[in-house]
Amino acid sequence: MVAAADAKNYVQKLGITHDHVVQELGWDEDVDDEIRVAIEEVTGSELLDEDSDEVVDVVLLWWRESDGDLVDTLMDVISPLSDEGVVWVLTPKTGRPDHVEPSEIAESATTAGLTQTSAANLGDWTGSRLVQPKAARQKR
């Protein structure tokens, strides 16, 4: 767990603001609850789960090496995204159990039709920011 001040800084790094609708996927006991709570405090609403059919601004995807096929999951998370929406793939840091190589995220993103734009250090987790290319957004 991280200190509350660090969690708020992480939410800023993720670019999440008060008016964002955030969907969370891949929750398990190993996630950083401080980050989750800080996101809910900033947005003023609870994180949506995988059963939601709302249009979302941010998908927060906790992902581990043992979770399966990242490409398939990324294909699924694109549909509820708003035109300017982003996907944050949060993976355990290097050296931690179930770490995911950055090259795997980049390759999976490309295959799913997404572009990786940046990365963020989030304590025990690393975030990879993925977006839809502008041309793909215009076709939707």
Give the structure's gist in a few sentences.
About 35% of the residues lie in helices and about 25% in strands. The chain is built from five helices and five strands.
Question: How are the secondary structure elements laid out?
Answer:
Blueprint: H1 4-13, E1 22-25, H2 33-43, E2 56-62, H3 70-78, E3 81-92, H4 102-111, E4 115-122, E5 125-131, H5 134-139
Parallel strand pairs: 1-2, 2-3
Antiparallel strand pairs: 3-5, 4-5
Report what the structure shows.
- With 140 residues, this protein is of the alpha/beta class.
- 33% of the residues lie in helices and 27% in strands.
- A 5-stranded mixed sheet has the order 1-2-3-5-4, with helices on both faces.
- Helix 1 (4-13) packs across helix 2 (33-43).
Characteristics:
alpha/beta, five-stranded mixed beta sheet, globular
Helix/strand order: HEHEHEHEEH
Shape: globular
Number of strands: 5
Helix-residue proportion = 25-40%
Q: How many helical elements?
A: 5
Instruction: Give the overall pLDDT as a whole number.
Output: 91
Given helix and strand content, the structural type is alpha/beta
Radius of gyration, in angstroms, nearest whole number: 14 Å
> What is the makeup of the main sheet?
5 strands, mixed
* Poorly predicted regions: none
Query: What fraction of residues sit in β-strands?
Result: 25-35%
**End-to-end span in angstroms?**
39 Å
